[in-house]
Amino acid sequence: MSTFEHCAYRMTFPYWSTRGGDMTKTGKHATAIVLTLAALAMTPFGNARADVPGNGALKIIVPFSAGAMIDNIARKYAEKLSPKLGRPIVVENRPGAGGMVGTQRLLAEDPKQNTMLFVSSSYAVNPSVFKDMPFDTLKDLSGVALLADTPILMVVNPDAKFKSIQDFVDKAKKRSAPYSYGSAGINSATDMAGRYFSSESGAPLEHIPYKAVHEGMMEVVAGRVDTSFPGIAQALPYVRDGKLQALAITGKERSPLAPDVPTLDESVSPGFDYGIWYGVIMSAKTDPAVKQTLATHLAEINKDPEIRQWLEGQGLTSRSKTLQEFDAYIASEISKYGKILNTPN
């Protein structure tokens, strides 16, 4: 047994979700490692704790409801991050306005509290959707870690008899009426995928928004909608059962989960690259050393075989970027979504 294992004992801290000032137990638990002073002086965790100053629990804000994918990711990473920092981590759900409520909550916190915000790619959509935002995404906030992403499948009903994605595009251009696509709502990630595909391929599409991506996908299964753009993990079971046909994948690379499905980049739209990503954001006023420490720990967690296996089970691929690379990536994503939203649908 290592020195660390001799000097540590395990305590279980419940995760708590805070809504409107009330704290309710979620039923999930973070495991924190409580060390003796001697162990703190002898282990890397002691150094990490010194680099993230303060006592008590660190906070993670999730700008969506409990059970959302980004919420699940936040809790999974909190389990791994807590022992590295030697402190419990509290997960606080602040849903609303496409993530804006949670982001404003982060900016209301004292930067010295080192609160983290776990976000999805909708974070980069908001600057183009909300014209009078009370903050500047690129100036008031900064990226800490890109954690994972997932490509989207473009699916159709097999009875439509499309031979390929090129066949779909060719037929769409010749039709008097556009093909329809179902999404999880206006300006959702799946709506963005449909808009982006239409603008880049030249295939006219009519948007039909639903309350959830699954609803739009099932309308394709039923034959009432022509296509949709669900996440790969959602769509694959229906593709494998023969209820849907996957025409293309939106990522830059083919997915190991569906290696026979071509990318849009290689088939009909060179340069096409679209997916849903997940990452960690902090106030731009946070101590750079703290951000670097957390970025290093999160990158280490991304290499954990257990985390990689869990991500793969969700249809996600582990990703990593430096602080500067992630900030540049966010800026490029904001620009990309701005162009998509300004393209007539």
TrEMBL record:
Pfam families, sorted: TctC (PF03401)
Taxonomic superkingdom: Bacteria
Gene3D superfamilies: Bordetella uptake gene, domain 1, Periplasmic binding protein-like II
PANTHER family from the UniProt entry: BLR1237 PROTEIN (PTHR42928:SF5), TRICARBOXYLATE-BINDING PROTEIN (PTHR42928)
Family: Belongs to the UPF0065 (bug) family.
Protein name: Tripartite tricarboxylate transporter substrate binding protein
Organism name: Achromobacter spanius
